[in-house]
Amino acid sequence: MAKMLLNYVPVYAMLPLGVVTPDNNFQNQDDIKRQLYKLKEAEVDGVMVDVWWGIIEAKGPKQYDWKAYRSLFQAIKDCGLKIQAIMSFHQCGGNVGDAVYIPLPQWVLQDGDGNPDIFYTNRRGTRNKEYLTLGIDNEPILGGRTPVQIYSDFMKSFRENMSDFLDAGTIVDIEVGLGPAGELRYPSYPQNQGWNFPGIGEFQCYDKYLREDFKKAATDAGHPEWELPQNAGQYNDRPDGTEFFRNNGTYVTESGKFFLTWYSNKLLIHGDQILEEATKAFCGCKVKIAAKVSGLHWWYNDESHAAELTAGYYNLYDRDGYRPISRMLSRHYGVLDFTCLEMKDYEQPGYAESAPQELVKQVLSGCWRENIEVAGENALPRYDANAYDQMLLNARPNGVNRDGPPKLKMYGLTYLRLSNQLIDGGNFWLFKTFVKKMHADQEYCPNPENYGRQVIPLQLSKPKISLEELLEATKPMGPLPFNSETDMKV
């Protein structure tokens, strides 16, 4: 029994986006509690909850209102479930699956009325109000505070107001939102601006702060004549329809490589800074810090990897764009949460040059090589055995080891998303079978110490890693061995 428990992978379920309403109320409590008890019946370990900046600090700077979330957390605790809390510093609305609209705090949007460059901006000057541009991370222009200070104050207030849930071990993970949809990326493919799959997306660095930063970087490098890309196309273009991404295009020139390095480095620095504040805010708590990375699987088989590049992941056949992120996370003892675990290559249209299975292998391999934990989730709601089997394979790529811990095992999996469609009817039976297989056919284990989750107080970040050290991880080392079939099928 003890050996088999080392194969146990916890399963969480995402709560509905609007479980706390935009006006900060925990409504439909009876229905939510019914759903939570159904999750408990399925032996799910816990739930993931978006904690919206736009709700909590809506009334004004440092005017936090946690009452609705405290009621929600108490209901979750009463059901015997754990909590993964997302510090959601982004807008809800405008992306795949967004069923409600929760904007950034109104006082932030009002500042943006006078200075629209606080938002990410594409080449044509279109602003994106999903998330503040990383170009102002250290600019004290929001009521005298920088965005990094604002995020830090929010997390400190969360710790103070949720200390009883933290101390009791109810809250086990803090996922820090680092961009649109809570992901460490640029908002390169916004549906609310007309993007459709499998468009390559657009670079989002044309606000005045990032323009000035790039001009300084280019000048310091001895090339003041270099400019931000003007030939990278629009949201729904194909790579071969642009000068930048076509075969032997701008992206392989000296100026193109310089831009892509700068663009991806800015994202690394952004994530590193905010995770640094998270480790300070939650130092001493028995939680893990996590960051989410998007599974941009379309155009993965194109030489340019265009969709990944516009999102800030400088990933090519001869350059690993994800291991630097893993290495950065290792400084904060962090967990990398990756999406699209349920997808198979053959499910994707051929014209998209998509390869989600290869992408997942690459990202998970990089995490394990950097000795960090990796968690994951499905990108789209799925209720079928094929999706569950693929998630099982990714959770334990080499299968179950009945004589001890498996060679490779994910830290946890979060299922998207809790709904009546999941828990009513035949879908629920299949989901319960999936959870049991994720638990290695073991009974529910309420104590995480017993299945290999190292629950120790969070420590301060390790000494700084230079960008040069981070980028040493860009050379691909080949994927770790993944079995093509799993003996854990639903």
UniProtKB/TrEMBL annotation:
What InterPro entries does UniProt report for this protein, alphabetically? GH, Glyco_hydro_14, Glyco_hydro_14_CS, Glyco_hydro_14B_pln
Q: Which GO terms describe its biological process?
A: starch catabolic process
Q: Name one Pfam family in it.
A: Glyco_hydro_14
The cross-references to SUPFAM superfamilies, in alphabetical order and at most eight, read: (Trans)glycosidases
Q: Quote the catalytic residue positions.
A: 183 (proton donor), 377 (proton acceptor)
Give the binding site residues for substrate.
50, 90, 98, 292, 297, 339, 378-379, 417
Descriptive protein name: Beta-amylase
